[in-house]
């Protein structure tokens, strides 16, 4: 059924340049002679459409040389707008329906005097790219650096308020509060974003064990929906399999509380079966040695199908998710969506492009069964399949978690190196 569908895939291609015309099989028509009004996020989700999110920004732009690892802040929106624009474009071609503003960790707490320019530039870039296709702009805020240490509600809400003021002025289509380890702070974010009257999505970077205060995923979802979020789920920190387990718990929590909300997942594209409660941050390979864990496009097709079967209709990715991973979501769900993304012009589904290869044993790989069942080798003979997460037992309020304004001194670093040696010798 599926393979015969894909053998006829060409006719389903929906190039961006044609998006405003009729997309084959999509059933959408453009009003003649006028500017097409895009359907809003809730209109799409309420009608059962699949909304494809975008992928990694800070991780991908760090690898491309435009973001500094450590604080992971998005100054590139101002410093290298062409790099940010290009990445948005690649996600759009791959099938994304949402351009999230590149505003991760972009509050005044992290960016100080630069916060406003960065937020404004990020809105302009996202809007510019959405105009080229069927995508919406989502203004994004994330957890602050203040909550862990001082939990000052007013100060934290003011940071969200400032970013929201820019998003409102730039008229983003909807809002996302993402990457929250603590439900309480996520609820504050939703409360602020709701004031705009625009739809609010909220995702936490938690696994099945729940938030850092031991609130279950189900309870987190309930609190976020009660605060005003219309879309809830998880992003970052865990792989697709674990993230879907978490969202299933959220779904069950909402059902038990008789609350309704749309579900959303934007997991890592790294396999993390060995992670603890805090996810991939604690893996010894974070952040510069994660490459052996990268999911293949086939892993991501499986994720897209499982997410869909679970009832998730906003499906995207976070760190490690490249445009080809997003294309894999769009290809897997093409039968439901009725069209393929523009980037599929250069990609035969399930390896079908290999049928043109000169070597016969490569041509023999031009089939779904081959790629679906292939056990992958890492090419690293002394590489363990799992590692042991660093778990120092430090939590909210610990001085070691205080974010410093200045760089860590050599002496402070030496103390940490010593502590790490000690911790791993007793582990
Ligand atoms: Zn992430």
TrEMBL record:
Check the UniProt entry and state the signal peptide residues, or none. Answer: none
Q: Which cofactor does it need?
A: Zn(2+)
Question: Pathway listed for it?
Answer: Amino-acid biosynthesis; L-methionine biosynthesis via de novo pathway; L-methionine from L-homocysteine (BhmT route): step 1/1
Q: Which GO terms describe its biological process?
A: L-methionine salvage; methylation; S-adenosylmethionine metabolic process; S-methylmethionine metabolic process
Binding positions for Zn(2+) per the UniProt entry: 236, 318-319
Q: Which residues form the Hcy-binding domain?
A: 39-333
Q: Tell me which Pfam families the record gives.
A: S-methyl_trans
Q: How is the cofactor bound?
A: Binds 1 zinc ion per subunit.
Q: Which domain of life, per UniProt?
A: Eukaryota
Q: Which UniProt keywords apply?
A: Metal-binding, Methyltransferase, Transferase, Zinc
What is a single molecular function from GO for this protein? Answer: S-methylmethionine-homocysteine S-methyltransferase activity
GO CC terms in record:
cytosol
Query: What is this protein called in UniProt?
Result: Betaine--homocysteine S-methyltransferase 2
By which gene is this protein encoded? BHMT2
């Amino acid at each position: 059924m599926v393979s015969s569908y894909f053998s006829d895939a060409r006719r389903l291609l929906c190039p961006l340049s044609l998006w405003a015309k009729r997309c084959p099989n999509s059933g959408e028509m453009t009003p003649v002679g006028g500017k097409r009004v895009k359907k809003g996020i809730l209109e799409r989700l309420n009608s059962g459409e699949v909304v494809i999110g975008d992928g990694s920004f800070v991780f991908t732009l760090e690898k491309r040389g435009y973001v500094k690892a450590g604080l992971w802040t998005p100054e590139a929106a101002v410093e290298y707008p062409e790099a940010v624009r290009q990445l948005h474009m690649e996600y759009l071609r791959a099938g994304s329906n949402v351009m999230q503003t590149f505003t991760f960790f972009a509050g005044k707490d992290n960016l100080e005097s630069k916060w406003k320019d960065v937020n404004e530039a990020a809105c302009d870039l996202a809007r510019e790219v959405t105009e080229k296709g069927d995508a919406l702009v989502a203004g994004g805020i994330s957890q602050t650096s203040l909550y862990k240490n001082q939990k000052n509600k007013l100060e934290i809400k003011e940071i969200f308020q400032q970013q929201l003021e820019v998003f409102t002025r730039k008229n983003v289509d909807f809002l996302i509060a993402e990457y929250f380890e603590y439900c309480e702070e996520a609820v504050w974010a939703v409360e602020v974003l709701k004031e705009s009257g625009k739809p609010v999505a909220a995702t936490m970077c938690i696994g099945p064990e729940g938030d850092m205060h031991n609130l279950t995923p189900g309870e987190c979802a309930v609190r976020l929906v009660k605060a005003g979020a219309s879309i809830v789920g998880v992003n970052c920190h865990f792989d697709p399999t674990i993230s879907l387990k978490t969202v299933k718990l959220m779904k069950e929590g909402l059902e038990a509380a008789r609350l309704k909300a749309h579900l959303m997942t934007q997991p890592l594209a790294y396999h993390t079966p060995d992670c603890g409660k805090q996810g991939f941050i604690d893996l010894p390979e974070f952040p510069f040695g994660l490459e052996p864990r990268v999911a293949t496009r086939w892993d991501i097709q499986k994720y897209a199908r499982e997410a869909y079967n679970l009832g998730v209709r906003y499906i995207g990715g976070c760190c490690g998710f490249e445009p080809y991973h997003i294309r894999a979501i769009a290809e897997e769900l093409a039968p439901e969506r009725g069209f393929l993304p523009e980037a599929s012009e250069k990609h035969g589904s399930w390896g079908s492009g290999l049928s043109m290869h000169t070597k016969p044993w490569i041509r023999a790989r031009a089939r779904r069964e081959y790629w679906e069942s292939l056990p992958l080798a890492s090419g690293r003979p002394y590489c363990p399949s799992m590692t042991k997460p660093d778990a120092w037992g430090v939590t909210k309020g610990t001085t070691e978690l205080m974010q410093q304004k200045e760089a860590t001194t050599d002496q402070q670093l030496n103390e940490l190196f010593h502590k790490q040696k000690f911790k791993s010798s007793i582990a």
